[in-house]
Amino acid sequence: LHDYEKMPWKNGLGFTFEIARQSSLVNDDFDWRVSMADVENDGDFSYFEGKKRIISTLSGAGMRLQIAKQSHVDVCSRDLFAFDGELPVFCQLMDGSIRDLNLIYNAEKVRPHMQWIVGCDNQMVLSAAQDILIFNMADQLQLSIHEKMYHLTAFECLKIANQDETLKIELPQNTAKDCCFIELFYSVDVFKNAKSIA
């Protein structure tokens, strides 16, 4: 999968493919990480101290999440669900294995915005985020950033490092779109120390 690094889950119950991360200045931690995982069995999610999470399903029927003692939440195709990485989470598959997309981040350093863009209409996104990731699920994705064209294949991710500029990202008409936009806004201290991983 585009040479994404495969690594074990923190709880050892499966594997994740790391798409991108912003490393922290402390130990081997990260300020944010985007990854993709195949979930084949019911089970507990890993515990991430001091982190928040946003999760979405890429394939499969979906999953039912029981978080602490709260009511369960169903997460199906292209749903986005945000929760606390420190809470106990049990995942029950709704009808067989799934593949999911995860954003895990330190809320004291990062403020994210995550959305799916689908359909064939012309669409435009304006963003002043310091880092922007565009993760593609369509067979092919064509987009332009300030009139420079980019082409992504399925499961490919484009990372855009931005400094003090509002970027105009256009997705042309009559091309099938199925991509996740992840915008990451940093605190001043994190932005000063951020290193590009493009």
Your description of this structure?
This protein is mainly beta. It has one helix at 188-193; strands at 5-8, 15-23, 30-39, 43-44, 52-59, 63-67, 73-75, 81-84, 89-93, 98-105, 110-119, 123-127, 131-136, 140-145, 148-153, 157-161, 167-171, 177-186. Strands 1-2-3-10-5-8 form a 6-stranded antiparallel beta sheet, with no helix packed on it. Strands 4-9-6-7 form a 4-stranded antiparallel beta sheet, with no helix packed on it. Strands 11-18-13-16 form a 4-stranded antiparallel beta sheet. Strand 1 and strand 2 (15-23) form a beta hairpin.
Radius of gyration from the alpha-carbon trace, in angstroms: 17 Å
What is the molecular shape?
Answer: globular
- Please outline the major beta sheet: 6 strands, antiparallel
Overall average residue pLDDT: 91
- Structural class, please? mainly beta
Count the DSSP helices. Answer: 1
End-to-end separation: 17 Å
How would you summarize the topology of this molecule?
Layout: E1 5-8, E2 15-23, E3 30-39, E4 43-44, E5 52-59, E6 63-67, E7 73-75, E8 81-84, E9 89-93, E10 98-105, E11 110-119, E12 123-127, E13 131-136, E14 140-145, E15 148-153, E16 157-161, E17 167-171, E18 177-186, H1 188-193
Antiparallel strand pairs: 1-2, 2-3, 3-10, 4-9, 5-8, 5-10, 6-7, 6-9, 11-18, 12-17, 13-16, 13-18, 14-15, 14-17
Task: Give a summary of the structure in a few sentences.
The chain is mainly beta and 198 residues long.
Keywords:
1 helix; mainly beta; 3% helix; four-stranded antiparallel beta sheet; 198 residues; six-stranded antiparallel beta sheet
